[in-house]
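Repro:
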Amino acid sequence: MQILCTPSYETQLKAILKKFLLKDFNATKKFKLYLDTILVNLPTKAHKYKQSPLFNDEDIKEIPHEAYNVIFFQDKTNNNYLIMGILEK
C-alpha cells in the first residue's frame, strides 16, 4: 500500500505553509507534523473519513484538518491512496 501525492497537492501545501511561516514557525511545524501523521496512518483510518461532497465518487474522501480539507482517492484497484489536494473550508 502506497500513499502518493499529486503535484497539485504539493503546490497547494507549499503555499499554505508559506502563509503559516509568516505568522508563526512553531505553528507551521505543528500543522505539518500533524498532517504527516494523518497521512501516514491513512491506510488504517481511511474508512472513518466521509465522502467528499465535491465529487460523486465514494472513493474520494476528505480529511478535515484545522481550516482545511485534504482530498484523497482510495484506489482499490492498485491498492494505494492518492492525495489530490488541500483546500480551505
